[in-house]
Each structure stands twice: as C-alpha cells, then as structure tokens.
Specification:
By secondary structure, the protein is mainly alpha-helical. 74% of the residues lie in helices and 0% in strands. Helix 1 crosses helix 2. The mean pLDDT is 84.
C-alpha cells in the first residue's frame, strides 16, 4: 500500500511540474507574440500570470492526463517519447477545446497558437518525465505489485 501511495504522489508531483512547464511556455509565447500585454503592466506581475495559467492548465489537463499516467505506470512504460507524445496530445486537446469554444469572431486557429500549444505539450511531457519517470525504479508495474 505504501508503494502505491508513493507512485500516486510521484505522479501528482509530475503532473504539477508538467502543468507548470506548459504554463511557462504558454506565457512566454503569449508575451513574445504581443498578446496579453494588458494583463502584464509590470514585471512583478509575471509570476502571478504564470500561476494563473498554471492553475488553468492543471485543472484542464488532470482529467486527460491521469488515465494516460495510470496506463503508462501499469504497463511500466518509462520512455521520454511516450511522455512527450502524451503531453502533446493533451495540449492539442486543449487547443481544440479552445477553438471549439470560440464564437464567430477572432479565432485561435493559426500556426503561432498551434506551435505554442505543441511546444507547451512537449515541455509538459518532458517535465513530467523528469519529475516522475526518469528516477522511478525500473521494476515492471510497481503499482500492480503494490496492490
């Protein structure tokens, strides 16, 4: 039971790290593209903006990422490629959700926004791999053994 709790804690910490890395990338893309400058009047507000985007990213991605994390842990898959691909898939789901929720006016459907989401997903997947996977024990299915 203790091993299963440790695996869950490691997964949740990894998910928080992934959402933070994705949020930093999203904010960097938004500020570099000239958007959201009204929300950032001083450099002191940058951490606040990153934390708001981090929370939004975490809330959205948790429902999509937890099943992917559970399957990867149960199958003992620990490759960076899988983590990066899952991160990109979750980010693309966020991109499509944002696009679907827009009205008939301006749209997020452009190459810059798509690049921002894909890069954020790649950064999130890499952060998850670094925080939760690469230092994990190399035994097959630690969760299933703990249960």
């Amino acid at each position: 039971m203790q091993l299963a709790m440790w695996c869950l804690a490691r997964a949740l910490i990894g998910l928080a790290a992934a959402a933070f890395a994705a949020a930093v990338v999203q904010v960097a893309f938004a500020l570099a593209g000239g958007g959201s400058t009204a929300a950032l009047s001083t450099a002191a507000e940058l951490p606040r903006l990153v934390m708001l985007v981090w929370l939004h990213t975490l809330v959205f991605s948790i429902a999509l990422a937890l099943p992917l994390i559970a399957v990867a842990h149960l199958l003992a898959v620990r490759s960076w490629t899988l983590c990066a691909a899952c991160g990109i898939a979750v980010a693309l789901a966020g991109f499509m959700t944002q696009y679907a929720s827009e009205g008939r006016g301006s749209t997020i459907l452009n190459a810059y926004a798509l690049a921002a989401f894909v890069t954020a997903g790649l950064a999130g997947g890499t952060a998850y791999w670094l925080a939760a996977v690469c230092r994990a024990k190399k035994t097959p299915s630690t969760i299933s053994k703990a249960l």
